[in-house]
Amino acid sequence: MTSADPLLAIEGLSAGYDAGDVLHDISLSVAPGEFVCVIGANTAGKSTLLRTVSGLVAACGSLRFDGTELVGLAAHRIPGLGIAHVPEGRHVFPDMTVDENVMLGAYAVRKSARLAERRDYVLDMFPRLRERLTQRAGTLSGGEQQMVVIGRALMLEPRLLLLDEPSHGLAPKVVDDLHDTFLAVSRTGTAILLVEQNTALALSVASRGYVLESGRIVLSGSAEALAGDDAVRTAYLGL
């Protein structure tokens, strides 16, 4: 892959469930180290898009990561390629400790000599978790649980981080902290594909974005251009 090639390249992708396709002829890309967001209404298909990248939804078309075709690839092989997925809903293992939850994220790279270094990186990113390492994850606040699942994903040292509605249900102060965290992760060179219903947040952190409506991409451009688009401002920013 040359520097001009996208890290993630999706072309003509359709995907869905038994009841039918949710995504229709999707084409988008994420360059190495780029921060891209996908915005849209609650039923637009944003989560399905990330689940398709992770191999959890049947698809047709092309979905290539660093030149490797992901369509048809078993889901358990995808994290080993360098893709970490933080699903919506803060899925911690409630009876396991914070430390155990975080370390599970390194399963695909468990033989790496960098695990201790990576753990320190995650705990430096989320100092509150360092204070709660032996605490059961199910006893944490919603914001702290979100730190756990993001930290768990970062243990993989991903080249591409998939974030699904990370601000949902969180207090404004926690959302602001996550804003800073995502920017810090992006500055390390990790590419991020963020799907968000919080359009203001998404466009404030991403450099480029796509608008998804009824499973189709209807608009794309720089985050600045999308934030200034009258249709986006009316439909998603309430302006």
Question: Quick summary of this structure?
Answer:
By secondary structure, the protein is α/β, with parallel strands linked by helices.
Describe it for me?
It is a single chain. With 239 residues, the protein is of the alpha/beta class. It is globular and about 45 Å long. Helix 2 (98-104) packs parallel to helix 5 (142-154). A hairpin with a 2-residue loop joins strand 1 and strand 2. The mean pLDDT is 93. It has helices at 46-53, 98-104, 115-125, 127-130, 142-154, 172-187, 199-205, 223-228, 230-236, and strands spanning 8-17, 20-30, 35-40, 58-65, 68-69, 83-86, 160-164, 191-196, 208-213, 216-222.
Q: Regions with pLDDT < 50 over 5+ consecutive residues? A: none
CATH class of the domain at 1-74 and 198-239: Alpha Beta
The structure class reads alpha/beta
Query: Which quaternary structure do these chains form?
Result: single chain
**What topology, given as strand order, has the largest sheet?**
6-7-8-3-9-10
- The CATH topology label of the domain at 1-74 and 198-239 is Rossmann fold
Kindly state the mean pLDDT as a whole number? 93
Could you give the order of the helices and strands?
A: EEEHEEEHHHHEHEHEEHH
Count of alpha/pi helices: 9
Summary tags:
239 residues; alpha/beta; Rossmann fold; four-stranded antiparallel beta sheet; 9 helices; globular
Write the layout of secondary structure elements.
Blueprint: E1 8-17, E2 20-30, E3 35-40, H1 46-53, E4 58-65, E5 68-69, E6 83-86, H2 98-104, H3 115-125, H4 127-130, H5 142-154, E7 160-164, H6 172-187, E8 191-196, H7 199-205, E9 208-213, E10 216-222, H8 223-228, H9 230-236
Parallel strand pairs: 3-8, 3-9, 6-7, 7-8
Antiparallel strand pairs: 1-2, 1-4, 4-5, 9-10
Helix pairs in contact: 2-5
